[in-house]
Amino acid sequence: MIQVSDLSITIDDKKIINDVTFTIPRGKIMSIIGESGSGKSMTVSAIIGMLPANVHVHGKVIYNGQNLLKINPKVMDSIRKKDIFTIFQDTSNSFNPSVKMGRQLFAYSAGRVGDSVEIFNEKMHSILDKLDLSRDILGQYPFQLSGGMLQRCMIACAFYVEPALLIADEPTSALDRVRQKEFIESLVQLNEDRGTTILLITHDLDLVAETAHEIAVIYKGSVVETGTVEAVFSRPVHAYTKRLLESRF
Ligand SMILES: Nc1ncnc2c1ncn2[C@@H]1O[C@H](COP(=O)(O)OP(=O)(O)OP(=O)(O)O)[C@@H](O)[C@H]1O
C-alpha cells in the first residue's frame, strides 16, 4: 500500500536516514521498531510530508502510484486529511484543553469527511459503544479524561474516518500496562473490523508481538531486517535484532 524506497534524510550534512526501503502491506499491521534516535519518527515525518525545513530528502514514498515526496502540497494536504490518520505519543497535545471533547472529536472525524452534526452523533455514539467508551465523554473536557482514554478517542475518530493508513507513533509509551492493553485491543479491533492498514512505531517488543503482522527493524538510520513478526522473532539475522530479542527475556 505504501512503498518506501531508498529513503535518505540529511540534516546539516548529517545523514539521519540511510537508504531505507520497506513496504507497508495493505490491511496489515506493520511495526517499525528501533532504539531512541534510530530514525523512526523521521521516517514517519517523510511519509506524511511533514519534515522540518532544513531537511534534505531523497528516495521515494509511493502511495497510489504517486511519489509523496514530490507531490503538489495541496494534494498532500488532502491525502493527510482523508487517507492518513496519525496518532502521536502524547495525545493530550492534540486536544485543546478549553474545548469539550464532542466538538474536538467532530473536527477530527465528521469535519474531515464533511458529515453533519446529526450524522456525527449517530455514528460516533455507536463507535464509542463498540469501544466501551462512555458517550458522556463528548460533554467533557480533555483534562477530565485519562491519557489512555484520549488515545482511544483518537482510535474512535479513526474508526469514523476509515483512513487508508493509520500511523501510531509510540502510542502506548505514556500509558500504564492496563491502558496499554485497552489501547492495543482497540487498535487490533480497527484493523480486524475495518481492514485498516496500520503503521505502528515503537520500541516495545511486547507490543509488536501482541499486535503486528510485519516488522522492520531500524538501527542507526538503516533498516537492518524486515519480514513477518513470526519469521523475524524466530530467526533473527542481524546482530542488533538478536540483541533486541535477547533483551526481551
Ligand atoms: N529537527 C531536527 N534537527 C536535527 N536533527 C534531528 C531533528 N529531528 C531529529 N533529529 C535527529 O535525527 C535522528 C533520528 O531522530 P528520530 O526522532 O527520527 O528518532 P526516533 O527513532 O524516532 O527516536 P525516539 O524513539 O527517541 O523518538 C536523531 O539523531 C535526532 O537527534
Oligomer: single chain
Give the overall shape. globular
The CATH homologous superfamily is termed: P-loop containing nucleotide triphosphate hydrolases
What small ligands are held by the chains? adenosine-5'-triphosphate
Low-confidence stretches: none
Proportion of beta-strand residues: 25-35%
Instruction: Determine the fraction of residues in helical runs and give it as a percent range.
Output: 25-40%
> Any idea how many domains?
1
Helical region count?
A: 10
Q: What would your notes on this structure say?
A:
The protein is globular and about 50 Å long. Strand 9 (214-219) and strand 10 form a beta hairpin. It is built from ten helices and ten strands. A six-stranded mixed sheet has the order 6-7-8-3-9-10, with helices on both faces. The protein has one domain (2-94, 165-246): Rossmann fold, CATH 3.40.50. By secondary structure, the protein is an alpha/beta fold. 39% of the residues lie in helices and 26% in strands. The model has no long low-confidence stretch (mean pLDDT 91). Bound molecules: adenosine-5'-triphosphate.
